[in-house]
Amino acid sequence: MPPSCEEGGRTRRGPCRIGLGLKAQGVAGEERRERALKAIDLIDLGGFESAYPKELSGGMRQRVGFARGIVVEPDALLMDEPFSALDVLTAENLRNELVGLWEGHEAPVKSILIVTHNIEEAVLLADRILVLSSNPGRIQAELKVGLPRPRDRNSPRFESIVDTVYDILTGREEAAAAPAAAAVARPAPTPTNAPLPDVSVGGLAGLLEILVARGGQDGLAEIADELSFEIDDLLPLVDTAVMLQLAHVDGVGIAITDAGREFVAADILTSKQLFARHVAKHAPLVRAIIQGLTATDGHTLREGFFLDQLRRGCSAEEARNQLETAIDGGRYAELYDYGRDGARLTLEPGAQKYL
Questions:
Q1: Comparing 222 with 129, which gets the higher pLDDT?
Q2: Residues 16-40, mean pLDDT to the nearest whole number
Q3: Residue 186 pLDDT exceeds 60
Q4: 162 domain residue, yes or no
Q5: CB 3.0 to 4.6 Å from 233: which of 6, 229, 314, 346, for a disulfide?
Q6: How, if at all, do strands 344-347 and 336-339 pair?
């Protein structure tokens, strides 16, 4: 056992870092080491007991995180996007290992709660899925998966559950279940209840070009498979295309609109003008920025004005991301400019015509 594990050690190798939670619980040093080494064996890191963090790969570091959670034998293990920062192969291997620990009853926990934006990952791992809404955050739906493990991504039942979760997230499940709800007046879209997806104009154009090449429509799963993407990778692009009315979604498929075809076929100058028209009309934050700038004598405002409004409905980080996305889109469309030195937005001549 490395001497750094002794009391007062100033470095943190494998067993030391894994046993920190036990130390906080008042577990004695020898027992801490024994339980840490057992956890290291459990998550298949034998031979790396004396490794420093810089000597471990991303997957190994995540295994250390698993061990640190397991070693204290909690009732519940809470995991926030545990595989999102890993490459595809490493993430898949760790998912399988986690399932193996759970199925083999080797992990001393009673339940595991995982937060993820990956729909297939949720269906692959979970016994129960809770779908959360945003602004305000609440439980929108609960689904019991009920599939035996190991689960086959290509099975009809697996794909059906994935489609159901996607429909719930995009609002189509609710519309299908209650057609009468369409008659109920919905609140007008605002920058907080209709946030901008974080996508580039180039990414949006690419999705529309793919749809044109596929005859104007195709299934999201088919597009994702051909591009070697997860369906979740396409969702921000799809949401943007739908928001700007350049495409529409039907079930689990997407089809380009006439406006979308016009955008794809246009030259660069015309496509900018078309994008300006759609983003100013259908993206609430971009429209609010144009209206705010128009209302001032000099047609300019500090970014803080818009950040303050956005922070009423989301975190400071989300507000910043939203504004950055709106700035990028508005600058591309030549609706307004942004000076980072003074952190000011300035209306471009003629932008008011798009309101």
A1: 129
A2: 74
A3: no
A4: no
A5: 229
A6: antiparallel
Of 71-75, 90-94, 97-101, 170-174, least confident by mean pLDDT is 170-174
Listed in sequence order, the residues at least 6 apart from 21 whose beta carbon sits closer than 8 Å to its beta carbon are 68, 69, 71, 72
- Closest listed residue to residue 347, CA positions, set 272, 277, 294: 294
Number of domains in the chain: 2
What CA–CA distance (Å, rounded) separates 187 from 305?
Answer: 23
Q: Would you say residue 136 lies in a domain?
A: no
334 occurs within a structural domain: yes
Distance CA 73, CA 188 (A): 48
Place 100 in a pLDDT band, splitting at 50, 70 and 90.
confident
- Domain end among 265, 299, 315: 265
| Average pLDDT of the residues in 174-196 | 61
Whether the predicted model's global pTM rises above the 0.85 cut: no
Q: C-alpha angle 314/196/188, rounded to 5°?
A: 80
Share of the chain above pLDDT 90, in %: 39
DSSP character string of 242-285: HHTTSEEEETTEEEE-HHHHHHHHS-HHHHHHHHHHHHHHH-HH
Residue 216, by phi and psi: left (phi above 0), alpha (psi -120 to 50) or beta? left
